[in-house]
Amino acid sequence: MGLTNNDVFKKLRVAHKLRDTDIIDICKLVDFKVTKSELGAIFRKEDHPKYMECGDQFLRNFLNGLIIQLRGPMPKKEK
């Protein structure tokens, strides 16, 4: 069985030593609102009653925000 989006998100969180507030700030960079309670639900174990699956859109927005945080925003193209 492969990795789920939740597994990928957890591994990125540990690898980059991110706290909940860091993740919220990263998501704000791409105008994606997320709450601490949503993050708590995503990082729970699968058998927990309040577990929430990390969807593709959630992970995509986080990754785009992480790119902006690490590299900076894309430069504007000149015509």
TrEMBL record:
A Pfam family hit: DUF1456
Domain of life from the UniProt record:
Bacteria
Q: Which PANTHER family match?
A: CYTOPLASMIC PROTEIN, CYTOPLASMIC PROTEIN-RELATED
Q: What is this protein called?
A: DUF1456 family protein
Lineage of this protein's species? Answer: Bacteria, Pseudomonadati, Bacteroidota, Flavobacteriia, Flavobacteriales
